[in-house]
Amino acid sequence: MRQIIPILAIATALAGCQAGGSAMDGARQFGAGLGAAATAPLDDLNLRRQHIPTVLLQAEANPYDLRNLNQCATIGSEIARLNEALGADTDEPPSPDGSFLSERAADAAAGAALDTIRDATTDFIPGRSWIRQLSGAEQHSRHVQSAIQAGRMRRAFLKGTGMQRNCPPPAAPAWFRPRGRSQR
Question: What is the pLDDT of residue 73?
Answer without folding.
Answer: 95
